Amino acid sequence: MTTFGTRLLTWLRGELVGTDAYGNSYYRLKGDKPSGRGGGRFSRERRWVIYAGEPEASKVPPEWHAWLHHTVDEVPGAWPHYAWEKPHQPNMTGTPLAYHPRGSVLRGGHRAAATGDYEPWTPE
Prior knowledge:
Blueprint: H1 4-13, E1 14-19, E2 25-29, E3 47-50, H2 62-68
Antiparallel strand pairs: 1-2, 2-3
């Protein structure tokens, strides 16, 4: 699902850094020497992801998101996971696994009856 240009760049100059549980592959520019001056796009190494399957940004786990956006320099690996952390889930909106609150028509439930303090607006 990647463009021809991204595939060509990855093949010619990409260095595989790692993969995640979803099968996404993460790359950086091989031999990239960022200038380190002034900031901007030329002051950092170039990093990108090749998605497994449908390209969906919400499939990128938080640790890889941090690496892609230069929040951390260490490549995600054996980072500690705490007991309170839930496993990453991609955005399920628009799929059969999407969340529907109680009373949602899409969930098949019924809404609670409106209370007596509601008065609908009617134009005069």
